[in-house]
C-alpha cells in the first residue's frame, strides 16, 4: 500500500504569522516536522503543500519536496485534495506543519489501522485524565464506540456522566481527546470538494463534523502522544524548552 504524507504549510497564520518558518533549535519548525515524518516506515512519499514561494524555497534548501497550491484553500484538507491527482498513495496522511514533535510510530499506526479496517478516515485519540483538559474548549473531545469508530466530536465535555460530579469524570476512562492529524482513503479525499459545509461543523468550528455528516466512517487510533502544536509565541517558547535537552545530547 502506498502512503502519501502531505504537510500543508502557509505563512498567513492568524495567531502566530510565519510560524512554520520560526526558528526552533536552529531549524525552521517545518523542517522538524519533515524530519519526524521521514522516520516513518510506511511513507511512500513526503511533500509540503504550500502557497508560499518563500516556504517552497526553504523546503528545497534542505532537500525536501514541495507542491504549490492555491492561496484560496481554506484548510489543510482542501489544500491536499487540490493536489490529489499528483499523489501516489491509496492512503493520504495530513500532518500539520506546526507539529515539530509528531511521532513517526503514530503515523505508521494510522496507516496500519487503515490497512486493517479500511475506514474512510483515520485519526488519533488519547485518554483525558485531567479535569482542566476536559473543560478546555481548545481540547476537542471524541465520543467513540467499542469498535473505535468515532461517533461525534465536540469542544464540550462529552459524554455527559449523569449523577457524577464533573471533577470525577476523567477517572472513569470514558473521555477521549482528539489530535488534529488525519489519514484519508484516496477515494474519500477525492469526494471532499463536493461535500457541503454542515451546521454542526460551523457551530463547533470542527472540520471533521463535515465528514460525519457525509456518512464517512472515522476510525480512531489510541496514542499516548500529546500534541505540541505551535499557535502562539508561548507555544514556541515551550517547544524551544522541550527541544533543549535533545539538542544538548
Structure overview:
The model has no long low-confidence stretch (mean pLDDT about 95). This protein has helices spanning about 30-35, 55-60, 75-80, 105-115, 130-135, 185-190, 200-205, 210-215, 235-249; strands spanning about 5-10, 25, 25-30, 45-50, 65-70, 90-95, 120-125, 140-145, 150-155, 175-180, 180-185, 220. It has nine helices and twelve strands. The chain is an alpha/beta fold.
Q: What structural category do the secondary elements indicate?
A: alpha/beta
The percent range for helix content is 25-40%
Question: What is the N-to-C order of secondary-structure elements (H for helix, E for strand)?
Answer: EEEHEHEHEHEHEEEEHHHEH
End-to-end distance: 37 Å
Shape label? globular
Largest sheet: 10 strands, mixed
Number of E strands: 12
Q: Any idea what the radius of gyration is? A: 18 Å
**Proportion of strand residues:** 15-25%
**Given the structure, what is the number of helices?**
9
Average of pLDDT: 93
> Which segments are poorly predicted (pLDDT under 50) over 5 or more consecutive residues?
none
Amino acid at each position: 500500500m502506498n502512503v502519501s504524507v502531505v504537510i500543508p504549510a502557509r505563512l498567513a497564520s492568524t495567531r502566530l504569522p510565519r510560524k512554520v518558518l520560526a526558528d526552533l533549535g536552529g531549524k525552521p519548525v517545518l523542517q522538524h516536522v519533515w524530519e519526524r515524518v521521514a522516520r516513518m516506515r510506511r511513507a511512500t512519499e513526503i511533500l509540503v503543500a504550500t502557497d508560499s514561494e518563500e516556504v517552497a524555497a526553504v523546503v528545497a534548501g534542505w532537500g525536501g519536496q514541495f507542491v504549490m497550491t492555491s492561496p484560496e484553500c481554506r484548510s489543510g484538507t482542501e489544500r491536499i485534495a487540490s493536489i490529489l491527482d499528483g499523489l501516489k498513495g491509496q492512503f493520504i496522511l495530513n500532518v500539520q506543519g506546526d507539529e515539530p514533535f509528531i511521532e513517526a510510530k503514530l503515523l505508521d499506526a494510522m496507516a496500519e489501522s487503515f490497512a486493517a479496517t479500511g475506514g474512510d478516515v483515520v485519526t488519533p485519540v488519547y485518554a483525558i485524565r485531567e479535569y482542566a483538559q476536559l473543560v478546555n474548549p481548545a481540547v476537542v473531545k471524541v465520543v467513540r464506540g467499542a469498535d473505535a469508530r468515532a461517533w461525534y466530536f465536540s469542544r464540550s465535555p462529552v459524554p455527559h456522566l449523569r449523577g457524577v460530579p464533573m471533577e470525577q469524570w476523567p477517572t472513569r476512562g470514558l473521555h477521549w481527546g482528539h489530535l488534529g492529524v488525519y489519514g484519508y482513503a484516496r477515494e474519500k479525499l477525492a469526494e471532499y470538494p463536493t461535500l457541503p459545509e454542515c451546521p454542526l461543523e460551523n457551530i463547533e468550528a470542527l472540520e471533521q463534523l463535515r465528514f460525519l455528516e457525509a456518512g464517512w466512517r472515522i476510525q480512531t487510533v489510541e496514542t499516548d502522544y500529546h500534541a505540541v502544536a505551535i499557535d502562539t509565541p508561548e507555544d514556541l517558547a515551550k517547544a524551544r524548552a522541550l527541544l533543549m535537552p535533545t539538542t544538548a545530547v
